[in-house]
């Protein structure tokens, strides 16, 4: 309260003071500051229903500082103090929400205690692993030097016993992401070469000779932990905001910022993004929406790339490109916060469940949030300096990237299948039994009502929860299941402070699930040219309504596109000089066809249309 009076407090401990913004979003009106706000919050916290929260402040502060004292020199001063909202804000805000929803007559909500115990167990395990790996030298070998100067807790969903993703800032060397979960897609696919570790798939593909054009897939530094629980967590490069950053939209009170590139930079970016998209389709990667893909740079890099930072779901039986989560379908149904957003939306996913709303005379009234929450930055949005957002203005480079990586994989199909089959034996894959919004509905019901039991079902009984799902929901986790990437029983992980044992689970009700591993992915069957044609059609359909010209060509990329007036039929041609051929994929809503012609043959003209030559951007 003293910090609030002085105007120095972190606002993350309490629901924000909200006001309406553009496009029916809510955004923070102002921070808590000054004597009046301090008096209001003090009066609120003195009420009986908030006493568990006050006790939690003390328990977390004392407990986490005691854990840190056991490892002198590991953390800089004030990093682990309860006043650090970046570290403690998410769990304290959840506890505040539970207290606010509980009538005083019902007594303390047991969930507040569970939240506190869960955070202490999570933090204790994190510090144990951090100290052990620091002693083993894995950070120092990569140029990271302590102490830890900043910790940030990801406020999004927790798994496996209230375990959060953390951003861990070192005194020198930059920051790493701490990922406490068993799915190891980043190690399998993204890891850059390191001593005593097998090559990742992306790094291996980058080393293959080009088949139709140069492509390079983005890699990360992934550090595996030491000790017997090393398979249950990892450390990864934290992808920072690029220097190419600008304001895409603004009002008198809000700004929305994102990556902003010159046209030549944007063309290169979208060619690389196309290669990444096609590769994800080839390996059955899914759930790559929201914050699971970010655009940015690794430390020491200058040009931004699309980075997969949560590759947990792969080897899925994807048949259409939107199933990856990277693009929308042609009707743009469902969540519009896909991997590559086509518009700079004001809204974000998630947000606070409760908000304070200004009332008469300066009073603040606490109510559930019923509108989308605003964002001030969009890490998966890419715009150019001419006002274009997404890949519609750079469709031909995007499609060329898809073609170039697919031909590379196709030419090495047997080796690709052998690589994936062997690598799958060493890794685990997450299995999404139900979509996240089904679990989110149950969690919101638990947080905003005085009900103290986990609901048995949601969606009017259509979505039922198993014993294992209800066990995880009871500790306010999003249920998490996984298995070996080459197959086997469905597993879950014990919560800390127990050892991270993996145990099989009983039968589950699968809802809209893409269950891994899919045999046709591991065998390389996915890599047929007709599947590339399906993916190309999906990529065009996703942004067809945003195209300014139905017929385009880019000689520098060797690509030509032609769409019918209804944009439901089309064709795209690729020059393939290495084979002396021009391949043409044509489609309608039901079928995809492939034809080839000698490269010297000119593309057939379309009646009444002149091809618009895309501006050179390579």
TrEMBL record:
Spell out the InterPro entries in the cross-references. Answer: Lant_dehyd (IPR025410)
Which parts of the sequence are annotated with region: Disordered? 596-618
Q: Where is the Lantibiotic biosynthesis protein dehydration domain?
A: 119-317
**Protein name, as recorded:** Lantibiotic biosynthesis protein dehydration domain-containing protein
């Amino acid at each position: 309260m003293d910090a609030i009076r002085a105007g120095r407090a972190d606002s993350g401990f309490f629901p924000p003071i909200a006001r309406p913004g553009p496009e029916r979003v809510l955004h923070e009106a102002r921070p808590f500051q000054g004597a009046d706000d301090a008096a209001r919050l003090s009066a609120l916290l003195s009420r009986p229903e908030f006493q568990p929260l006050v006790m939690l402040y003390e328990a977390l502060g004392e407990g986490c500082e005691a854990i840190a004292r056991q490892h002198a020199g590991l953390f800089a001063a004030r990093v682990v103090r309860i006043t650090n909202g970046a570290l403690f804000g998410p769990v304290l805000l959840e506890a505040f929400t539970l207290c606010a929803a509980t009538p005083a007559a019902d007594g303390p909500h047991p969930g507040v205690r569970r939240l506190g115990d869960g955070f202490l167990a999570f933090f204790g395990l994190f510090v144990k692993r951090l100290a052990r790996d620091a002693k083993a030298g894995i950070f120092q070998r990569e140029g990271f030097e302590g102490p830890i100067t900043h910790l940030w807790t990801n406020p999004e969903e927790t798994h496996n016993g209230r375990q959060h993703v953390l951003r861990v800032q070192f005194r020198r060397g930059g920051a790493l992401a701490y990922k406490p979960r068993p799915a190891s897609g980043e190690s399998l696919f993204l890891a850059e070469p390191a001593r005593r570790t097998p090559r990742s798939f992306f790094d291996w593909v980058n080393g293959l000779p080009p088949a139709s054009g140069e492509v390079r897939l983005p890699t990360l530094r992934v550090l595996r932990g030491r000790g017997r629980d090393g398979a249950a967590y990892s450390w990864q490069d934290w992808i920072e905001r690029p220097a190419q950053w600008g304001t895409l939209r603004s009002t008198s009170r809000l700004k929305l910022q994102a990556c902003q590139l010159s046209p030549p930079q944007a063309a290169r970016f979208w060619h690389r993004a196309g290669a990444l998209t096609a590769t994800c389709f080839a390996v059955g990667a899914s759930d790559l929406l929201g914050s699971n893909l970010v655009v940015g740079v690794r430390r020491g890099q200058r040009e931004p790339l699309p980075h997969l930072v949560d590759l947990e779901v792969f080897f899925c039986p994807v048949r259409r490109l939107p199933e990856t989560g990277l693009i929308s379908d042609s009707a743009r149904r469902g969540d519009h916060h896909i991997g590559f957003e086509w518009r700079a939306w004001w809204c974000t996913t998630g947000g606070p469940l409760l908000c304070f709303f200004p009332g008469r005379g300066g009073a603040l009234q606490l109510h559930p949030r019923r509108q989308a929450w605003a964002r001030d930055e969009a890490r998966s949005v890419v715009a150019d300096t001419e006002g274009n957002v997404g890949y519609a203005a750079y469709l031909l480079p995007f499609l060329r990237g898809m073609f170039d990586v697919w031909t590379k994989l196709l030419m090495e199909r047997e080796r690709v299948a052998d690589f994936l089959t062997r690598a799958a034996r060493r890794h685990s894959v997450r299995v999404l039994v139900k979509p996240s919004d089904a679990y989110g509905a149950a969690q919101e019901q638990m947080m905003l009502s005085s009900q103290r039991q986990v609901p048995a079902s949601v969606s009017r009984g259509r979505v039922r929860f198993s014993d294992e799902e209800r066990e995880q929901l009871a500790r306010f986790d999003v249920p998490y299941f996984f298995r070996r990437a080459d197959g086997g029983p469905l597993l879950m992980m014990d919560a800390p402070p127990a050892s991270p044992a993996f145990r099989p689970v009983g039968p589950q009700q699968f809802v809209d699930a893409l269950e891994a591993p899919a045999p046709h992915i591991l065998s390389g069957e996915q890599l047929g040219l007709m599947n590339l044609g399906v993916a190309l059609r999906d990529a065009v359909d996703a942004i067809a309504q945003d195209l300014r010209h139905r017929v385009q060509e880019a000689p520098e990329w060797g690509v030509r596109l032609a769409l019918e007036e209804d944009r439901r039929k089309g064709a795209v041609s690729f020059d393939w000089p290495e084979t002396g051929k021009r391949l043409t994929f044509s489609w309608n809503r039901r079928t995809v066809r492939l034809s080839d012609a000698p490269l010297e043959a000119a593309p057939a003209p379309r009646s009444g249309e002149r091809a618009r030559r895309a501006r050179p951007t390579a």
